[in-house]
Specification:
Length: 188
């Protein structure tokens, strides 16, 4: 392996998938039809699986927990609650939701009421909702929540600290916003 190819390839790199599938294609000398079908199914799974997207790869190679230590964070990552992508896996996401509900019991209003809106927050195994479980809540989302429940500037800053202590994901914040919108619609 040359020093230039030391970084693993992106899991969604189409050229690598083409090369790998071509090597296994049954029409090729030494090809294997079963292996080709397996690789095709694996390629589709990687393309759709949030765990592969979360833990596997971003621009520049592997971006999983403990790899890279946050150097080179994008502006979008800096505008979010610090969050390990592996926390988005459904079972861990449920644990974080339970943690938020537990923390809510000891919090003052309005933080308590806001966090208790997570009581029915579902976990997802795939799709866009699962992807939202893999990244931290954005500060604009948290600010909108704060504004909707009437938090002052200092109150919103306190809410950011509570959100970091859990940590809240984008999926959590989206769920809270949805519940607040439902509440507003019901009051109108």
């Amino acid at each position: 392996m040359s020093p230039q190819s030391a970084a693993p390839a992106l899991l969604n790199d189409a050229s690598y998938w083409r090369r790998l599938k071509a090597a296994a294609h049954p029409d090729r000398n030494g090809g294997d039809g079963d292996l080709f079908l397996f690789l095709s199914a694996l390629e589709e799974h990687v393309a759709q699986c949030p765990r592969m997207s979360c833990v596997g790869v971003g621009e520049g190679g592997y971006a999983g927990p403990g790899y890279g230590g946050g150097q080179g964070q994008s502006q979008e990552e800096k505008d979010r609650i610090p969050y390990e992508s592996g926390l988005g896996w459904a079972d861990t996401f449920v644990d974080l939701t339970l943690r938020a509900l537990s923390i809510a019991e000891g919090e003052v209003e309005p933080y308590r009421s806001v966090l208790l809106l997570l009581r029915d927050c579902p976990a997802h195994e795939h799709g866009r909702e699962a992807m939202r479980q893999c990244r931290g809540a954005s500060y604009p989302q948290l600010a909108k929540i704060g504004h909707m429940v009437g938090m002052s500037r200092a109150g919103r800053a306190g809410f950011y600290e509570v959100a970091r202590s859990i940590p809240l994901s984008e999926a959590h914040a989206k769920h809270i916003l949805g519940r607040l919108h439902e509440r507003e619609a019901g009051a109108a």
